[in-house]
Amino acid sequence: MDIRTQQRLDFLTQHNWQSAQITALPFDASFRRYFRLQRADDESILLMDAPPERENVRPFIQIAQHLQHLQLSAPRIFATDINTGFVLLEDFGDATFTRLLNQRADPLPLYLSAVDALIALHQHPQATAIDLPPYDIERLLTEAVLLVDWLLPVITGVETPKIARDSYLHCWQDILTQLPAIPTTLVLRDYHVDNLMQLTGRDGAKACGLLDFQDGLLGASPYDLVSLLEDARRDVPDTLSETLRNHYYQAFPQLDRDAFDTWYTVLGVQRHCKVLGIFVRLFKRDGKAQYLQHLPRLLRLLTRGLSHPVLAPLKQWLIQHKIEENLLTNPNFLALLQQGKQTYTLN
């Protein structure tokens, strides 16, 4: 038995779950793993296994408790060991929005539930009453630069020169500093259907179970809405997206729509730049090929967002460096997609 397995058993024994049937759940791009523990009486609970050298469980616990205080459905925390990175938490079941959509569930009620949870969060006067870092320009730039650090070298075949990297960041700096004022809220940051669950027996915003919020920050209110509706992994029809945005707007009659829409577009493009870089990094550095299949969708979303006038300098920079929808004909980019497809198939 390896050290980690022994630590896990010791934690479960301490909390009287050592005899439960344990089932590993599918894991994602992070280093966290989840296990379902089920006793003979069918009582179940989840174990989060977050190696402390890779993950810090404190933010998850902090934000989960805050969301519960706001009357939103984050998993209840039953036991923790901060030093070893183990958490026992509420089992929300298997009804992720992704699974339901793949089973051809009507998308409108699911997405409305997700937007209603955001509305409840953004309307709550205590939403920002939590000690978290700001989602400020410095952090947004650090994320956006992943595009030129990981995707651009694939296209060019060489490391991105410092002068090009600096000019890219300068474009983003100019764009972000001229944006209008916008309400600040708790931003969950990975708000999409993979991380949302349908909870039966709960009403209103509580019917939407929230997962994977440990990277939350205090930032601009449009971020999670654009994360949901411009999903890197799933197409959201324009008609559905428009309906959901209007549903959100109706809850905030005093909202400056022009300011919100500008931020929505800019944060969408920033997120697409970030995720394009992350998905290439996951393959190049970590050997996770399954995310490369989403790159064409991200390029389409990025190209559409760049039509906004405030993003004109960035659009020009990206065209100059061959990062545009025509990238789908670039031999190096196509080779990356093919390499990823072959690797994923073999695995």
TrEMBL record:
UniProt KW keywords: Transferase
Pfam family, one: APH
Cleavable signal peptide: none
Ranges annotated as spanning the membrane: none
UniProt-recorded Gene Ontology molecular function terms: transferase activity
Domain spans labelled Aminoglycoside phosphotransferase: 22-253
Protein name from the UniProt record: Aminoglycoside phosphotransferase
UniProt KW Zinc keyword: no
Alphabetized InterPro entries for the sequence: Aminoglycoside_PTrfase (IPR002575), Kinase-like_dom_sf (IPR011009)
